[in-house]
Amino acid sequence: MSRSQSQIASVDPVWSRITEEARAAVQNEPLLGGLVHSSILHHKNLERAISYRISLKLASGEMSEQILREIGDEALTSDPEIGRAIRADLVAVLDRDPACHRLLQPILYFKGFQAVQAYRIGHWLWQEGRRDLAYFFQMRVSEVFGIDIHPAARIGRGIMIDHAHSIVIGETAVVGDNVSMLHSVTLGGTGKEDDDRHPKIGDGVLIGAGAKVLGNITVGHCSRVAAGSVVLEDIPPMMTVAGVPARIVGEAGCAQPSMAMDHLIKAQT
């Protein structure tokens, strides 16, 4: 490792590892050289790489890649918290998804990770009062990835969305840190009211595939929502709920369900 590479690794070990994985990927599969160089190795840091990757994915005849990249660069430069959230999300995917073996994979291939990072740019635009542009990001994320996250929703760090198809997160939803969810999860409302109407998901929560959490309710920290459940009432912390409508069926079973990723409901003795 050169002196400059060593300095980068000491300041940003996540980006250093990604670039090492990228060089190894090119060596192992030269046909991917163009993709890997343009997406990773041509950039000076992770923020620029993410901005480029998102702009490439969301570009269309309505909005060019260059304009989208400028927007992404502005967002990621203006708010360093986005970069910290990106790194936490990457590590979360690597730790919790058994199909992920390198930090490089989510950036290049995983639509759940890519959609969340595009949302983060859209959320920054929303907070800056650039609502129409934020809606454009929401629209393109939905069209490209099949994931609909309102730019006003508040989502924490360390988010892992596995498979990710048909995820819906409403306008007033709040998702805490270190949350894991699978495909077809809905954090939605229960009617056409326009006030605070969406769920509040605590830290460390695990939400199974196809679960629907509806209304201005709270899912307590480190709880589990079983696959296919419909949650209509508050859930206390560190509990497991299942069913339609969902009912408490036991404790969460571990201190950090979102990290353990254990979806099995064990019989209570």
From TrEMBL:
SUPFAM superfamilies: Trimeric LpxA-like enzymes (SSF51161). It is an enzyme of class 2 (transferase). Pfam families: Hexapep (PF00132), SATase_N (PF06426). CDD domains: LbH_SAT (cd03354). The keyword Thylakoid does not apply. Its EC number is 2.3.1.30. Residues 14-118 form the Serine acetyltransferase N-terminal domain. GO terms for molecular function: serine O-acetyltransferase activity. One of its GO terms (cellular component) is cytoplasm. Pathway: Amino-acid biosynthesis; L-cysteine biosynthesis; L-cysteine from L-serine: step 1/2. It comes from the Bacteria. It catalyses: L-serine + acetyl-CoA = O-acetyl-L-serine + CoA. One of its GO terms (biological process) is cysteine biosynthetic process from serine. Keywords: Acyltransferase, Amino-acid biosynthesis, Repeat, Transferase. PANTHER family: SERINE ACETYLTRANSFERASE. NCBIfam families: cysE (TIGR01172), EPS_EpsC (NF041874). Belongs to the transferase hexapeptide repeat family. This is Serine acetyltransferase. It comes from Harenicola maris.
